[in-house]
Input
Amino acid sequence: MGKAWTFGENMNTDEIIPGRFNITIDPLELAKNVFCEVKPEYAKTVQSGDVIVGGQNFGCGSSREHAPIAIKGSQAKCIIAPSFARIFFRNAINIGLPILECPEAVADITEGDDIDVNLSTGEIFNRTNGRQYQAQALPDFVLKIAEAGGIVNFLKTHDIQDLLMNAEG
Amino acid sequence: MGTLIEEIFSRKAGRQIHAGEILLLDVDYIMSHDNTTPLAIKAFQAIGKPILDKNRIVIHFDHAYPAPNVLAAENHKKIIEFVQAQELPHFLHQGVCHQVMIEEGFITPGAIVIGADSHSNTYGALGAFGTGLGSTEIGVAWATGKCWFKVPETIRVELSGQAQHGVYAKDVMIHIAGLLGMDGGTYRSVEFGGEYIDNLPMHERIIFPNMSTEIGAKCGLIAADEVTINYLENETPAEGPFEALHPINPRYERILEIDVATLTPQVSCHPDVDNVKPLAEVEGLDVNEVYIGTCTNARYEDLEIVANMLKGKKVNPLVRVIVTPASDRIYKKALKNGLIEILMDAGCTVTGSGCGACIGRHGGILAPGERALTTMNRNFIGRMGSPLSEIYLASPATAAATALTGKITDPRNLLMQIAE
Ligand code: SF4
Output
């Protein structure tokens, strides 16, 4: 359960967290300035479990990981978007920030809606309008990384081969 | 059997691979640079395991080198200490990482090379799988030698015909970026081929995989052929035999066909790489800076085009014309053959090799309200400095013509005069 925060198309990593704040990699520090230019009220009032609802090509731009780290640091539960920029997609997975692709949900969610997400099934429930949407379920290995809190944590206790055990492919 | 990316992955995995599968693959080289290595070190140290194979790690100083400020200097210091402590054999600072990777022979057909830099796609020009990743994955690969990949679907860009005089690979690629859009290649492998590519020398081929990043692609690939093998044998220390993989009965998600003969010089206009116009539509727009550099268009042949156009002339004195060779090797060759002197006599400022002004750290930062025409690959708002500045992307020839007039200028008249 959480509030939806909506963002536009082609949200680039500089809009998520401007380069001048990238001198730290502390998630909580970065979270203080996340979306500071496009939505300054976000960092001030976001609550744990809130959901980011982005547009097409969310996270395009540089390969730096500060952007997903900043969002994760803000305690957002996940990001829902019609599509993500490729490196952002990987970076988010690797730091354990779940991301769901679901154009239908994005088209139908307005800022402030109350959203519930089941990460393992990909079900998104909009409590405000009572509608439900189905994103593709996250692959097993993505959930494993998210559960461990990121790939670095995963590797502290696992071999990298364990990622694909029982996973597709 | 499959697209070029399926062929490359199948060879590596030792079995038939199809788009959609998730793989864990051994990587041949792991590239990072001064901007992205510190975070990789942090991830690596947090994992707490030793480096699997030092020989696969290549670290470059190019993004902010020599250090323009204390923060960059601290980064460099930290990285050098790590290189020393881990006794890493491949530590380089002789130009833009991607160019140096190729020059030093790290890139060969069929190789899997990951880089903590979005333009690692460049390696596809030699038939290698190159892709950009975040720093954490670089730290992971240092420790494990492996990386996970979802095998992408492929968009084939089929280029036929012969380009008009004054129209270069850069113009063709800018046109493609306009057609496919900034996210047109997301999660995809973009395969470039056709008779136009077959006849193109390596320095022009590189533009396509390099800028496949701009359309969001996971990789941009050109199948290795005789041009590739000759280039590797004559221009790099890479040792063969080289295996020239190519698509076999491929199933493409989409095929884009372009007859390049129809194209005129193209420009990516502020503020998006896919805001593409034929040069004629923006001709005459004033510029404050012309920047000839980067992993896209600062190779010897690019400098040669510019020098030929500027020889015996003077650039507009109110415009800052900055030339940053992509690597020391290119710089040295240009020096030896008199290009640097021609450029300096024309009023250009020639800087040491590296990324230079491309990321707005040093060597040509833009003030609010300024406009630059550059040979770079991206024109994000604020990339070269002030968020209130504008960046236009074009070929080195367009950059040279623009340097002379101080306005965006079609290079074809001047090229014609020189040819006569
Ligand atoms: S030259 Fe520019 S685009 Fe190329 S690697 Fe350097 S910063 Fe990136």
Chain B touches chain A through 40 residues (CB under 8 Å).
